[in-house]
Amino acid sequence: MATLAQAPAPAVAPAPAPVPAGRARRATGWLLAVPGVVWLAVFFALPIALLFSTSLMVPVPGGDIGQFQPAFRVANYTEALARYWPTFLRSFGYGLVATVLALAIGYPLAYVVAVKARRFPTVQALLLVLVIAPFFTSFILRTIAWRQILADEGVVVRTLQAVSLLPGDGRLTATSFAVVMGLTYNFVPFMTLPIYASLERLDLRYVEAGQDLYAGPWTTFRTITWPLSLPGVVAGTLLTFIPASGDYVNAALLGTSRTQMVGNVIESRFFRVVDYPTAAALSFILMATILALVYVYVRRSGTDELV
Amino acid sequence: MSRLATAVRRNPGDTLLVLFAVLAFGYLFVPIGYVVAFSFNDGGRSNLVWRGFTLDNWANPCGAPGVCQALANSVQIGLIATVLATLMGTLLAYALVRARFRARGVLNVLIFLPMATPEVVLGASLLAQFLNAGVGLGFWTIVLAHTMFTISFVVVTVKARVATLDPRLEEAAADLYSSGLQTFWRVTLPLLLPGIAAAALLSFSLSFDDFIITNFNSGNTDTFPKFVYVAAARGIPAQAYVIGSAMFVLSLLVVVVGRLVAVRRTAA
């Protein structure tokens, strides 16, 4: 605090001594950072470390359900993988398909709002509000609304059955289709917003230059628009893929036990089976896989500065 | 119709794009339309099929047992977590951009990791910690959890604003004999305020809408998303749809007015 109190003094003196000023700045920086850093250390880093130690625990011999003691049982990991690898594959498969679909919907949407609506600022502002508007109702409520809309006795299923797109006993809820559709739906805005942010800054003179040089619309898009929007695409796909592959709400509300994702297993291992080591090991495998995938993806897409 | 046909012939790509956008917006709004419609349904406690129009649910939004308590909890938790996260996150963001200290690289990773960690893992790890420490789950454990996961989003949002801040403005204040604290209150804070407000709005809505982390750390305390999730097994009472619709209309109004004012101001 002593250095802090002295800090304003050099401002009066014609030539402030650089060393104390620098030291004061560093101290102030630390003081500002401390509350947030401590909070993240206590409620994020410490729990993750604890989860790791839990993932290596064994049951207390002769103890009740849910009683575990510290050990170093790596087999918790191999057993969890051996038993749940299809669930992992399914989670990342659903996450990937949902990400691709959200990109296919979100990119053109972002393009229309950012480029086509550029000359009409009011329209653009309103369209942007429409993109984030789904956030204004609870996402659980929206997902349950989908379940009701796609229900067996609902209009959608009846209509599809009537035009023979769905067999007479076919259904939409409790299928992989419903789960992936729900995931896609929930993450389209997360995909659209960062792409919008990139495309909003797109200088249209580059596009015109491409056209002047006799590039067709597709070539112009492939060589100019797409590369310039890449940071937004990378951010959007990460914002979609990470939460989508860790989600369990869509699978729980729109799927069945056959469409379970890793999140569902972690949740039930924690709450219903009270098997904390397996739940912890599954959490760690999920987290490590996602971080590895993100690392490779960010490296390959050549946008290191994003992270 | 003929004008549309001409437009399509003249610029097929653009027309397809606009059509696609209309369809995509339709997709985004189908379940919202459903929620609003069923808030007017005379469907009784389970509210599964359409049984006719009524205003009763809107006249009595707390009619379903527990729904308003859950809503009140969500609002209180959201407000407390927002204040805490915005305070700590803003200071942290300012420190990360301005102060030169050695641990910056490590801190940037510490801030990025919670955002790259799936919510199940965050929820499960905090639960393990609370179980271990013998802390009873409830209102305050939810507040701790929400503050934790929203700090990172505040830091990222405010950092962007600090980066656009011209350091010469603060230097000018110092040259005019302003003390460090005066400079902060009179110059720095007002300039950062739009970023801080955006961060606060973001963390409130993240906290208000969170289900996964909350579910792990809430014990018997209900929040609005948790209420809806639990009620889903039996059928959601229409009052939940009323609250969802009212929230939607209110926030839409606030944001539309805000955006229009912003557009006017930049146009002027």
TrEMBL record, chain A:
Keyword Membrane: yes
Top-rank lineage group of the source organism: Bacteria
Membrane topology qualifier: Multi-pass membrane protein
Subcellular location: Cell membrane
Location of the ABC transmembrane type-1 domain: 88-297
Key words of the record: Cell membrane, Membrane, Transmembrane, Transmembrane helix, Transport
Transmembrane intervals: 30-52, 92-113, 125-145, 174-196, 279-298
CDD domains xrefs: TM_PBP2
Pfam families given in the database record: BPD_transp_1
InterPro entries: MetI-like (IPR000515), MetI-like_sf (IPR035906)
Family in the record: Belongs to the binding-protein-dependent transport system permease family. CysTW subfamily.
Protein name, UniProt field: ABC transporter permease
Organism, as annotated: Aquipuribacter hungaricus
TrEMBL record, chain B:
Keyword terms: Cell membrane, Membrane, Transmembrane, Transmembrane helix, Transport
Topological type in the membrane: Multi-pass membrane protein
Residue stretches spanning the membrane: 16-40, 75-97, 109-131, 137-158, 187-208, 240-262
CDD domains: TM_PBP2
Domain of life: Bacteria
Organism, as annotated: Aquipuribacter hungaricus
Annotated signal sequence range: none
ABC transmembrane type-1 domain: residues covered: 71-262
Family: Belongs to the binding-protein-dependent transport system permease family. CysTW subfamily.
One Pfam family per UniProt: BPD_transp_1
Predominant cellular place of this UniProt entry's protein: membrane
SUPFAM superfamilies on file: MetI-like (SSF161098)
Name of protein: ABC transporter permease
PANTHER family (alphabetical): PUTRESCINE TRANSPORT SYSTEM PERMEASE PROTEIN POTI
Compartments, record wording: Cell membrane
